[in-house]
Amino acid sequence: MKKYFTAILLTLVALIFWTAPQAEALSCAPPRPVKEEMDHSTVVFKGKAVEIKKDGLTVFRIDEAWKGVNTQQFEIYDNGWDPFIKDTVYLVFGSVQEGKLRMNLCGRTGPWDHAREAAMKDSGIKSIKPDPIMEAEQPKQQMGNTLPATIVIIAVALLLLVLVVLIRRKRMRRQ
To answer: What angle do CA 71, 35, 107 make, to 5 degrees?
Structure first.
């Protein structure tokens, strides 16, 4: 009985470590050129953070947009490392990551300043002002990939079921 318990415990510990997210230190290289950053982004806009919601979801009032935004308000998640600050104007580059529209990690997103303004002007890409009448949908957020977690849960359940059957058979043989 102790052997089975030890085997189950070791298996569960191994599965927990196998499925645990990998921890890494963050170190960013210099940002990509504006055009390259735009090519890798779903949305690019300048706006004021007007509301910070749960889990880093931030509501922006849009001043200008270069890509993917044509509404006066827009919601996007921070990247988990650099939270947005309410009432600050930002230049935001964002894309779908882990199933949510997030600001790009290690990109050109940051508080609007002369350097960001000059970089956007120098890119030659024209901005648009959001249409107050038009309310288009934000880019669709994709569901995260839950297949690996589902497989692990099924494997653990099957393992436990097999162990219960083996323990019951062993007890029946003793009687």
So the answer is: 80
φ/ψ of 79, rounded to 5, equals: -90, 5
Give residue 37's pLDDT: 93
- Residues 129 and 9: their CA atoms lie apart, in Å, by 59
- Give ∠ CA 41-43-46 in degrees, rounded to 5: 120
Using alpha carbons, select from 128, 116, 108, 89 the residue that is nearest to residue 39: 108
pLDDT-above-90 percentage for the chain: 39
Contact 100, 54 (CB under 8 A): no
Backbone angles phi, psi at 70, to 5 degrees: -140, 30
